[in-house]
Amino acid sequence: MSQRRSFSAMNYALIGLALVGLLLIWLTLLGVFGRQHVSAQTFVDFQQGDEPHLGFRRAHAKGVCVAGEFVSSGALADYSTAELLQQGVTPMLGRFSIGGGNPTAPDLTSPVRSFAFSLDAGANQQWRSAMNTPPVMAVATPDAFFAQLNALAPNPHTGERDGEKIAAFFAAHPETQAFRQWSASYQPSASFAQENFHSINAFYLVNADGKQQAVRWHLKANTEAMPGIEQPSSVADNPYAQSEQANDALGLEIADRIRERPVVFDLVFTFADPSDDASDPTVAWPSSRRHVIAGQIVIERVVDSPSVCDAVNFDPLILPTGMRPSEDAILRARSAAYAESYRRRAREQIFHHSDTTP
Amino acid sequence: MSHTELDRNSPTQYPLSMRLMHWGMAALIIALLIVGLSMVASLQTWQPTLLTWHKAFGVLAAILVIARLINRVRHQQPQLPSSLPKWQQLAARGSHVLLYTLMILMPVSGYLMQSAAGRSVYLFADIWLPPALAPNLTLYAVFRELHAYSALVLVGVISVHALAALHHGFVRRDGVLKSMLFK
């Protein structure tokens, strides 16, 4: 009988390969690979703590959803084939937020303020960016970033930060210097509209010849559209700072401001020199680097339905044709952690009831 | 009717086209599962590239499973040996139905979860698969979880399928494994 004969070498190879593949699946499933490194889940677990705010973003939980447009001047047309960087107007959905996972945290004491946008030039030509007030990261790798979060976290029992732990972390990580310098000089202002919001990580513009240019970008108040915006202010100048609504002071102020007239930011690109390392988010590029204003982010209205922004994951790796991510390890880590947070809060919409405010 | 008669009337091997599709898709699906399970956790910088491939090859898998189903109904297939206990025959048939169901469910839920997140799926060159839905967080949750849990069930069913095949080939030696192999 033919089936009594042993299998040929080729068949054994086929069976062997299939079994090796199956074994690899199980090992991946059991998390055997990369166990020495932090994962997307490690980060989100840490961010949400023991009592997650179900249904909310695990980071930047508290925010205001806004809409408007990006008015491109076409100044970057020679550097990128991206449709939305050619001269023209692209619809924009945006979100101002404060750092942290608490959706009811007091606005004015947050150490980080943010603006994220999703520019929609057709379904496969989107550009999403989540920008923060710091221009640089303290560290350059996910593992070091996780160590930083741990060092800075307050003791769960006392609520106090451990000064010694923080000092030890900074001593072990000299790359934190630029971040610490910024941190020491930063004065939070009265309004989201007065902040600079930075891409932090670098990206590449790619033109029609395939030529790449490393860039970072930031948003900066447009003084023509908002006269006097450049006047320095402090949190005490926020109109709600002394009111009963001080907890939501930044959100209320920006909403009032937008209802009165559009809030306009310049989208400023900084071009790297060949000497700049695009994969290192801890180093600030010298201010002498070339700056190009790509156009204006014009925020025209507050979006009252929270579900509009809730449906969006402001993943910084969603880029249009003509833009590419740098090799920055933090960029990938942000994208993966955002995706995990997105999955969790989406699932919680179904399986848990949660407050929809703010 | 004796089972020798039955064996004589039905082929002892799957047609070559079905065997090629079986092993080709086995390689594709195993790769998609490894990449899928790794890319949702690992923070390595090459993961986004794998993610893009995962989506494009997922679309390829969807096309292949349709071709495979069409090819399947066009051919006569070897029957299970009648000596096989009834429950094992039922389990074999059930697991094959489950495998095909999951092979359809995986790419469909993957595509729809991307759609609900407002994303197109990049295929190759300048070709994109546009989203089928307006962005919707609840639908994203449904398809995202369906995609994840279908993957886990698929890993389980493939494992049982492989163990059963080994059992046929090396314990029962009843020609069932051989019907899917080559010369």
UniProtKB/TrEMBL annotation, chain A:
An example GO CC term for this entry is: cytoplasm
Question: Organism classification, top ranks?
Answer: Bacteria, Pseudomonadati, Pseudomonadota, Gammaproteobacteria, Alteromonadales
* PANTHER family the UniProt entry points to: CATALASE
Cofactor(s) the record lists: heme
Q: Which Pfam families does the entry mention?
A: Catalase
Keyword check for Oxidoreductase = yes
Q: Which top EC class is given?
A: oxidoreductase
Q: Where is the Catalase core domain?
A: 30-358
Gene3D superfamilies xref list: 1.20.1280.120, Catalase core domain (2.40.180.10)
Q: What is this protein called?
A: Catalase-related peroxidase
Which domain of life does the protein's organism represent?
A: Bacteria
State the family it belongs to: Belongs to the catalase family.
Sorted alphabetically, which keywords does the UniProt record give? Heme, Iron, Metal-binding, Oxidoreductase, Peroxidase
The keyword Ribonucleoprotein belongs to this UniProt entry's keyword annotation: no
UniProtKB/TrEMBL annotation, chain B:
Q: Does the keyword Plastid apply?
A: no
Q: Superkingdom of this entry's organism? A: Bacteria
Q: Name one GO biological process term.
A: respiratory electron transport chain
Q: Which co-factor is required?
A: heme b
What's the short name of a Pfam family annotated to this entry? Ni_hydr_CYTB
Q: Name one GO molecular function term.
A: metal ion binding
Location, primary (coarse class):
membrane
Which compartments is it annotated to reside in? Cell membrane
Q: What name goes with this protein?
A: Cytochrome B
Q: Which organism is it from?
A: Aliidiomarina maris
